[in-house]
Amino acid sequence: MPLGKAKRYLEDVMAHKQAIPFRRFCGGVGRTAQAKNRHSNVFCLPFYLHYLPFQVKGLDVDALYISHIQVNQAQKQRRRTYRAHGRINPYMSSPCHIELTLSEKEEPVKKEPETQLATSKSKKSQASS
């Protein structure tokens, strides 16, 4: 996806015009029969929109495209929530590691026409002739 198109897409997601299709760790995005534009994680998008211009230093912006994006689960962070009657429950957060790679489009190199190369003869066949 080209960089300009990706930026527009992320801005549309923040405005809730489009959704990012995603799956939870094991299962779907929720219990609904239809796909709706409500299942989007908009918390990390300002982070991406802020850091996209810094990654284009010294590169041709028009030739950039997102070549790789990967999200992995990070280690859960623990906090405590205090409940009634003196109970304490875990209050876990579910962070993630996001890997984004931008690359320039490479121009294709034309293949040279095949030339008729002289077939090399082995020493044995040269000796017999």
From TrEMBL:
PROSITE patterns, sorted: RIBOSOMAL_L22
A Pfam cross-reference name: Ribosomal_L22
Renumbered residue ranges of the record's region Disordered: 102-129
An example Gene Ontology biological process: cytoplasmic translation
Key words, A-Z: Ribonucleoprotein, Ribosomal protein
Biased composition (Basic and acidic residues): 102-114
GO molecular function: structural constituent of ribosome
Keyword NAD belongs to the record: no
Transmembrane segments: none
GO cellular component: cytosolic large ribosomal subunit
Family the entry assigns: Belongs to the universal ribosomal protein uL22 family.
Protein name: RIBOSOMAL PROTEIN L17A
